[in-house]
Amino acid sequence: MKARSFPLLALALLAACGDGADARRTAGGGAADGPEVPEAQRFGGTGVVALGADITDMNPLTSADNNANNIQSFVLFTPVVALNEKLEPVPALARSWELNADSTELTFHLRNDIRWQDGRKTTAYDLKLAYDLAREKETGYPNSSFWTYYGDAAAPDSFTFRVRLRPHAEYMDPWRTFFAVPSHIFKDAKPAELRSHPFNTQRPVGNGPFRFVSRAPGQNWVFAANPDYPAELGGRPYLDRLIVRVIPEAATRLTELLNGTVDYYVQVTPEQLPQLEASRNARLVTFRNRSYAMVVWNQKREMFQDARVRRALTMAINKRGIIDGILRGHGEVAHSSIPNIYWMADSTAGRGIADYDPARAAALLDSAGWTDRNRDGVRENAQGKPFRFTLKTNTGNRERADLTEVIQSDLAKVGVDARIQIVEFGTLISQLNNVRERPFEAVVMGWVSEFKIDDENLFSCRRLDEPYQWPQYCNPRTTALLDTLPRIVDREQARPLWREYQRLIAQDQPYTFLYFQERLEGVSNRMRNVHPDARGDLVGISKWYLLPNGRARQGGGG
């Protein structure tokens, strides 16, 4: 049987982003990158990245937040493959790969010069262990649907990894965000105990361009340049050290960016744009992102089990007003989980189903049995239970706090009483992922779509007892479509089924999809070569550098 070797097949490329990932623009009082600095002068200094919440788990097998994945992908680990600016897979841990003639076996040939930071070589046995653990249900690997069409794997030698699969579209996509783990650390680990492993928060051992140095919980993560990182993968980073600081208050993050103690502020809040754009010390970098904001309705709670009620709640929320008011126009209305920049997106999916219409929202609530029976301004059901619930979101995110207040106000106008509760980010994620209890009613949250759209983890009936099935939503037809769509390689054949899927989601509203947001990042003018895009906030970080005359700090950054 003849094998064939080729790049990614039928990747769900962005449809409207020019050459793919590069959709950024720069604004602000300072220049973007300015004159080139000779490479020999780029090495040195400490870069500081500011986040609004701590990363509570650095283990790629168990972590479940986007900031952790950014650091795993571009700082601490080496993924099996990477994506270039055209969103094509390129070698990383795997120097090459091949699919056999009948598309049932994928073979990766790994590099032999990537080492864990404790000195041991990264091997196919490490990758096989990570793969096997990720497929164990007790591990709780968040992206378990990655492996729906994959089977058993083998490591026939130290640098060959082979895995069985059923033919399907976009089969390479999981490997851009999947990592080996050190088998000498995890070989005796039990899947059910991985979430509490010391590796996660105390001593992660990576094999990427930076090495873990230390962590102060709630304060920072510190990394140092890996001097032995292979030249073919970029070699030693320009920065000597990288500090990821936790700064809960957005105003403080901006102040520190403007005064030079922070170099990169992830996710600037829209109300800060005028101040940032007027600064001569920092600049704004934006790009079209893969993320959306939504309200998760927990269907374990009786009040959210009726799709009419969920549609009514959506119709009561003024999404365009939110985009214009809170985001200052940096967003697009969302009606499904598929960003408008993807080829299969149907911009009409929510038309007539989930449009802003408070009058129709009120009528739907009436038809579902929720009326204001005692004239107190809050609807009750037939048993007299008021339509009152707790609406949670996370600390350290002004945008979500503002968003939650607007939603509260909009819902009050149709007789629904949402009580806001702000929860520490790690605690909220734990509540969302608590498969036994799901101890929440409704949550304002964000989600970052994969390049391969596969919502099985989010909405399949079979995933109700897995971490990401937050809404506890089950529609057999939706599940059937989620089973079918990944197997269709031909886009024209898949398109009508994608359209049906999006309209079903708009009809059922497991989430209220609010908007797709343009990503806003603040960058110090002393930091150069910073070009985030749809691949992630920290893409290319090994090539970020500080201007030679800008490496002295005013204090606080390291």
Describe the structure.
- By secondary structure, this protein is of the alpha+beta class.
- It has a domain at 289-517: Dipeptide-binding Protein, Domain 3 (Dipeptide-binding Protein, domain 3).
- Helices cover 22% and strands 22% of the residues.
- The protein is built from 13 helices and 20 strands.
- It has helices spanning 66-76, 124-134, 183-186, 250-259, 273-277, 307-315, 319-325, 358-367, 398-412, 425-432, 456-459, 476-484, 491-508, and strands spanning 25-28, 46-51, 81-83, 89-91, 94-99, 105-110, 150-157, 160-165, 210-216, 220-225, 241-246, 264-265, 282-297, 331-333, 388-394, 417-423, 442-448, 511-524, 527-528, 545-546.
- Strands 1, 2, 9, 10, 11, 12, 13, 14, 15, 16, 17 and 18 form a 12-stranded mixed beta sheet that branches. It has a 4-stranded antiparallel beta sheet with strand order 5-6-8-7, covered by helices on one side. A two-stranded antiparallel ribbon has the order 3-4.
- Helix 6 runs antiparallel to helix 8 (358-367) and helix 12 runs antiparallel to helix 13 (491-508).
